[in-house]
Amino acid sequence: MRLVTSEQRCKETKMSMWEPGVKKRVLYAGTGDVVDYQEGTKAVFHYETCKLDEPPTVLDDSRSQEKPMELIFGKKFKLEIWEKCLMSMRVGEVAEFVCEPRVVAQYPIVAKSLRDIRQGKQERPRHCCGMASDNSLGYADLDELVRQPQPLAFIIELLKVEKKGEYSQEAWQMTPEEKKAALPRLQEEGNNLYRLKQFHQAADKYAEALGCIEQLLIREKPGDEEWVGLDSRKVPLLLNYSQCKLILGDYYPVIEHTTAVINRDEGNVKAYFRRGKAHAAVWNEREAQADFSKVLELDPTLKGAVRKELKLLEDRIKSTEKEEWGKLKGKNVFG
Fold it and tell me: Are strands 42-51 and 16-19 parallel, antiparallel or unpaired?
């Protein structure tokens, strides 16, 4: 998918050598001056990566993702040419950059990290480096680029530029002190979003806070007072995140994260109850019954709520068995 319309394309300029190994062509002029990118400046942009075959093979297109690409200057982003491209652009500009193979040698590794993030395979990049242990990136088209380097074209649309202090930093952008200071704010923002029934956004806030804690824990010695204090702060965040995922019908993360809570606090009733509901939703009958039994052991006043959940599970099982029996009869498998 191209980033410009045919009407906009009529405003193209000629392709010109702009950086050694790179040719630039402006497809749609932006407004204002070229941005002065000081350290900490954030650029928000869409990009499309293509091979130079005919018709062009599109490798990646940020418009197919939930949100545009964001790049923080001064964080040693692995694909240096993207920073240079952005530094030549005005807000609103759309430009095409055709790059020689040596300029884009790191693209397969960066693309792997960005794809993995989009598919939920990893957290935000610690600025995109490293290959899989078997020397495969896990994507056939990227493996081909590693084996046979070739020129690539980037079509970039610069949407917005924000100076440091004008945007909320994500965990990977913060100093340890900033991460600690952000924890209560992120939790409160998540709670407010939850009250507004914006469960996806609330889960993202809780996940961001958990990411801050994980990165802080790396700096501490397991078992030390600071480590224990930080680790204990994960419990309410894990419970809140699990509740959002439960409402959204994403049950396996609920099982995973409530189990993490139980490993820290064996008497946590909320964790057992939410895990029991998630087990029931994915037909783990024995596990659900075990968790609900534990809930009753810890808090007998929840007998009514547990009975309701067990009745729902029983009704679902009976309904499914009846449906399957009807299918078997319809196939006349008994003669």
Answer: unpaired
Residue 315, Cα to own-chain centre: how many angstroms? 36
Encode pLDDT of 145-164 as tens digits. Answer: 999 999 999 999 999 999 88
Question: How close are the terminal C-alpha atoms of the chain, in Å?
Answer: 56
C-alpha to C-alpha distance for 257 and 254, rounded to whole angstroms:
5
DSSP helix/strand/coil, 24: strand
Q: What is the pLDDT of residues 68-82, one digit of tens each?
A: 999 988 877 888 999
Q: How much is the pTM?
A: 0.56
What is the rounded CA–CA span in Å between residue 247 and residue 263?
23
Token output for 7: 């009407």
Whether 272 has a pLDDT exceeding 50, the answer reads: yes
How many residues are listed for the chain in this entry?
A: 335
